[in-house]
Amino acid sequence: MFESIQGLLDEHAELQLRLSDPAVHADQGLARRLGRRYAELSRIVDAYNKWHALEDDLAAASEMAAEDPEFAAEVPVLKEQLDEAQETLRRLLIPRDPNDGRDVIIEVKGGEGGDEAALFAGDLLRMYTRYAEHRGWRTEIISATESDLGGYKDVSMAIKGNSNDPAEGVYARLKYEGGVHRVQRVPVTESQGRIHTSAAGVLVLPEVDEPEEVEINQNDLKIDVYRSSGPGGQSVNTTDSAVRITHLPTGIVVAMQNEKSQLQNREAAMRVLRSRILAHEQEKIDAANSDIRKSQIRTMDRSERIRTYNYPENRIVDHRTGYKAYNLDTVLNGELEAVVQAAIEMDEQARLDAIGDEN
């Protein structure tokens, strides 16, 4: 079952030596990649050592059980602990998404429902911001188009993590948030007190660590400049500072207008463009691998409905995992961990099942 473990133990020892070399840290990108892999393998090594130690303890207790009642009493306890340690190790050996350790750019866009959808988009942004605060992550608004009544027609936010461990990476925990989030509540504009349904789309992009990671030919870019506008469409700038970049090979379009200078908007647009291209390439890889496609519950598609937020009943339901709770108020205040963990566990189980089908 754990045939590949020795190779991972050897890799962990090799990485430990490399990371002790000051020359490695002269290249921050290389040091970051090696650090992530080392942190990932460290979890596996710790779990393996615990499992191996419990095997030895169980063998010793079983040998002494016939002569000593105390050892006999330990045997069932050690068997249970060994089973738990084995399951932990099995899950850690599931191949990880290569982007798990990355930071993210999360995009929230008001969908059906007009002003109410924009207000809900603002609520989702606040939820992710608070969740990031709970985990000690940093957030940065990259671009935002506000609606007339508040909220956002669309908004992009970067979230930066604080751990080298891919299991604790921002993308590892937020990649399942992509899709349509539906809200049921009485809008502020509703005078009759009727419950309306509206929606917002969420897209989660792994952020590129270094620009060199994603090759972009400048000849493949169509760049347009124009004057930025406010919520009502009025011009808020007398110069052509807004930038729209189209990546011709993929058709990906990114527009930025929040910064005061054309150069700043261009840099922000390229930052988002690189992340979208990285995600686009990963989607192609996933699509070519049927097992990955079957096992992953994350989506890059804003059209897939994933969750419903019902305000009158204070209820939240995830339609993929079956998660349901009546604590919507606390979830919207950033207590998102139980919802995220349900998605992670479902994805891990699907991957384990896929591995089992192959064997």
UniProtKB/TrEMBL annotation:
- For whether the record's keyword set contains Cytoplasm, the answer is yes
What main location does UniProt list? cytoplasm
SUPFAM superfamilies this protein is in? Release factor
Sections of the chain in a coiled coil: 256-298
Using the record's annotation, list all stretches that form the Prokaryotic-type class I peptide chain release factors domain: 227-243
**Record's subcellular location:** Cytoplasm
The post-translation modification note in this UniProt entry reads:
Methylated by PrmC. Methylation increases the termination efficiency of RF1.
Query: GO CC terms for this protein?
Result: cytoplasm
Q: Which SMART domains match?
A: PCRF
One of the entry's Gene Ontology molecular-function terms is: translation release factor activity, codon specific
* Keywords in alphabetical order: Coiled coil, Cytoplasm, Methylation, Protein biosynthesis
Q: Which PROSITE patterns match?
A: RF_PROK_I
Please list the residues that carry the modification N5-methylglutamine: 234
State if Cytoplasm is listed as a keyword: yes
What is the annotated role of this protein in its UniProt record?
Peptide chain release factor 1 directs the termination of translation in response to the peptide chain termination codons UAG and UAA.
Task: Please state which protein family the record places this protein in.
Answer: Belongs to the prokaryotic/mitochondrial release factor family.
Which NCBIfam families does the entry link to? prfA, PRK00591.1
- Kindly give the PANTHER family that the UniProt entry links to this protein: LD18447P
- Name it: Peptide chain release factor 1
**Organism of provenance:** Arthrobacter sunyaminii
Q: Which gene is the coding source of this polypeptide chain?
A: prfA
